[in-house]
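> call design_seq(struct)
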């Protein structure tokens, strides 16, 4: 009787394990079936389909990741389903780290729409487990180099998060070949004086895209610069030396301006005519402004590559010594 009882218990255990395996396989098969149907699900029925598939939990994850490799509209639905599954994980669940690692590993193999969906998961992943931040940083870094402009734009927003620390990379995106990407980068860092100085930002007042120029000017005004300051900044960084010379017209009669700073910058211009004009105005301003241009004039008299400029600097020094 005892042997029969043992056999019965073993049989029950075997049937239970077999049943669990069959159910797991069946659950995975069903999840795969519904995942494939996402591609043909009308938008009006998408939410219900996403909720149903998210209910499969871990069983749906491999199928959803496979969808991200395909260039299909279902990528967006797959991403939303993954986000719901992530939200259902307990806080600090190791499965979040594993999923983030898998996305990082496969990111370059995803389709453009799949990469967009993957980037959209970053916030959900970091919110559920901060131990996956390194994986997320690498995903965002890849996004900033994505061949699709829309994905680079999305990555710029993510890179500015404190957990990602991608500010330096976003500044580099100000030189992106796509103007829409440059606009996003300007919106992200334009007001952040601690990341990029006013002087360094001025060059984008001459961007080839009018939208970038307008955003740059707005950022400078947001930093407290007056309209006149922005105009002078635009002039002094203009590729035309004739435009740069126009800065001299703005220096007199404004107590909020520092003529010495502007003249000092013009005195280092690449064009001798601009350097000479800065010296001339500096001599005219003597007495009328608190201006000490002697140290700069000494350097110009000794080292300026243009003979006329050196002569003018020497004349200024001689006048000061009388």
């Amino acid at each position: 009787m005892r042997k029969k009882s043992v056999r019965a218990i073993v049989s029950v255990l075997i049937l239970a394990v077999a049943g669990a395996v069959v159910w797991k396989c069946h659950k995975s098969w069903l999840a795969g079936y519904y995942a494939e149907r996402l591609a043909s699900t009308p938008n009006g029925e998408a939410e219900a389909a996403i909720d149903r598939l998210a209910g499969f939990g871990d069983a749906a994850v491999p199928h959803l990741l496979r969808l991200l490799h395909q260039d299909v509209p279902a990528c967006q639905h797959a991403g939303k389903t993954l986000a719901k599954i992530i939200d259902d994980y307990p806080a600090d669940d190791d499965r979040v780290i594993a999923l983030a690692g898998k996305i990082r590993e496969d990111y370059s193999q995803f389709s453009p729409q799949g990469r967009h969906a993957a980037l959209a998961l970053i916030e959900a992943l970091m919110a559920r487990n901060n131990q996956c931040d390194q994986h997320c940083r690498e995903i965002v870094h890849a996004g900033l180099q994505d061949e699709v402009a829309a994905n680079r734009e999305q990555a710029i927003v993510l890179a500015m998060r404190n957990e990602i620390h991608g500010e330096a990379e976003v500044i580099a995106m100000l030189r992106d070949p796509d103007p829409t990407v440059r606009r996003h980068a300007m919106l992200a860092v334009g007001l952040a004086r601690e990341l990029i100085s006013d002087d360094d930002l001025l060059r984008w007042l001459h961007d080839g895209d009018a939208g970038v120029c307008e955003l740059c000017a707005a950022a400078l005004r947001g930093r407290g610069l007056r309209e006149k300051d922005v105009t002078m900044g635009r002039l002094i960084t203009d590729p035309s030396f004739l435009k740069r010379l126009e800065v001299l017209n703005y220096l007199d009669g404004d107590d909020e301006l520092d003529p010495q700073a502007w003249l000092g910058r013009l005195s280092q211009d690449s064009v001798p005519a601009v350097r000479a004009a800065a010296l001339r105005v500096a001599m005219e301003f003597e007495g009328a402004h608190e201006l000490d241009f002697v140290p700069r004039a000494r350097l110009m008299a000794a080292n300026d590559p243009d003979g006329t400029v050196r002569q003018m600097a020497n004349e200024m020094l001689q006048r000061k010594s009388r």
